[in-house]
Design a protein that fits this description.
There is one protein chain. The protein is α+β, with helices and mostly antiparallel strands. It is built from 7 helices and 20 strands. A hairpin with an 8-residue loop joins strand 6 and strand 7.
Length: 439
């Protein structure tokens, strides 16, 4: 996938934004699900901010501070540094623009760069994002009242979708509403009330504490070919929104860049403390990620003639996924590389486990996880929506080996692929991703 140079994108975005605003495009657009008319306006406005001196200064500050972090000492870390910072900066600008110019509007966040018809946007990935997750967000205030309306697809996302309350999108979780606490009509429709009042046993209600300023919404697609995310809209039903405008968006974007960078730095610090090519799972507390889920990260360091072989047991989990990122926690381009696999995408072993082969070069096995040529990066495991689980037995093995040893190490029935079959697998993956842009 090719993208226009950032300077060109900024220039085109400014013109398109002016045209969209002049045309009075409504924010109630619901089709397609993700790249809505409002999403395009937000992305155009955010892209236009990237050349602002205050935003450039905030970007340069992050670039300088991250240059002193451990990933910067790696060859791959140095090469990926500016791209990782740029993604984080755009993500912050997008959040500020929604809050100050378009709020409340549910928007797609932590996104890859995309081209949808004549519209495009830079990437906005950080924080060890997962390709299987549709992340959306919206600014809120406990002084106001909202109604969120949702519609499950004919082949919906996983049944554990989640609404989280945050301060500035990346704080610890202040409150949440999970799918199990939402009544859904027979046709897949649901309605959620959002305000400062306590739920007091009410279903379909999300309480905003005094310091709440944003919602983060998680929707999981384990099967890209078949599943579609929930359609979501938000309506303000009590109070008046406070849209501060473009000047405030500039200031807020710079502040948000700093906040996002601090959060990502903390994540990187935790990753740096993990032994190389080893992994330990833990139950998530809700500071970051889904509370009660099981997850773990591994710093990988793999030579071109090596592979990291991981065998995982899904046990009772409805979702098990392995995802790769660059050394900065930005997902490796997953729309045209097999840099992640879920339990709905990978091939099982005869005993019900999954064996993944993480390598910079294609080893010829179906469950290859492509580092896109990176020798150093991060591998993440997510284990979610489960009943009983023995956390100590999820990871059966996690071992660095020589690629030449794979025939002796992998299960005898491990699925292999020809170059033609690999090309078809990647093409199918690309088509599955493209659904997000048009459906």
């Amino acid at each position: 996938m090719r993208f226009r140079p950032i300077a060109v994108v900024i220039a085109v975005s400014a013109l398109a934004l002016a045209a969209a605003v002049q045309a009075g495009t409504k924010s109630t657009e619901t089709a397609p699900t993700l790249v809505t008319a409002t999403q395009k306006q937000i992305d155009l406005a955010a892209t236009s901010l990237l050349s602002d001196p205050a935003i450039r200064a905030a970007r340069d500050s992050v670039l300088k501070s991250w240059s002193a972090l451990p990933p910067a000492s790696l060859k791959d870390g140095k090469e990926q540094l500016e791209g990782a910072v740029d993604d984080l900066v755009f993500s912050a600008a997008r959040a500020a623009v929604e809050r100050d110019q378009f709020g409340p509007s549910i928007f797609w966040t932590l996104t890859p760069p995309y081209v949808a018809g004549e519209d495009s946007a830079p990437g906005g990935r950080f924080g060890i994002d997962t390709p299987d997750r549709i992340y959306r967000a919206v600014s809120v205030s406990p002084a106001l009242r909202y109604v969120i309306r949702g519609q499950r697809a004919a082949q919906p996302s996983n049944g554990d979708f989640l609404f989280e309350v945050h301060q500035n999108f990346v704080s610890r979780v202040l409150g949440s509403l999970s799918a199990r606490d939402i009544d859904i009509d027979a046709d897949g429709a649901f309605t959620i009330t959002v305000d400062s009042s306590p739920s007091e046993g009410r279903r379909n209600h999300l309480t905003l504490p005094p310091d709440a300023s944003s919602l983060l919404i998680r929707d999981t697609l384990a099967d890209w070919d078949r599943q579609s995310p929930n359609r979501l809209t938000i309506e303000l039903v009590g109070g008046e929104p406070s849209r501060a405008g473009l000047d405030q968006a500039r200031l807020d974007a710079a502040t948000t860049i700093k906040a996002y960078a601090e959060v990502n730095s903390k994540i990187l610090d935790l990753v740096a403390k993990t032994p190389v090519n080893e992994i330990k799972l833990a139950v998530r507390t809700g500071d970051h990620g889904i509370e009660g889920a099981i997850a773990g990260v591994s710093r990988f360091s793999i030579k071109d003639d090596e592979a990291l072989v991981a065998t995982l047991d899904p046990q009772t989990a409805a979702y098990l996924g392995v995802q790769l990122t660059d050394p900065w926690g930005r997902s490796i381009p997953y729309w045209d590389h097999i840099s992640s696999l879920s339990n709905r995408q990978a091939i099982k072993n005869q005993d019900g486990t999954f064996t993944f082969v993480i390598a910079p070069r294609d080893p010829g096995y179906r469950n290859w996880l492509d580092t896109n040529g990176l020798n150093d990066g991060v591998a993440a495991v997510r284990f979610e929506d489960f009943g009983k689980a023995d956390i100590d037995k999820i990871v059966r093995s996690w071992k660095l080996v020589k690629v030449a040893e794979l025939p002796q190490i992998l299960p005898a029935d491990a699925a292999r692929v020809t170059p033609e079959e690999r090309a078809a697998q990647i093409a199918a993956r690309k088509a599955g991703f493209d659904k997000r842009l048009i459906n």
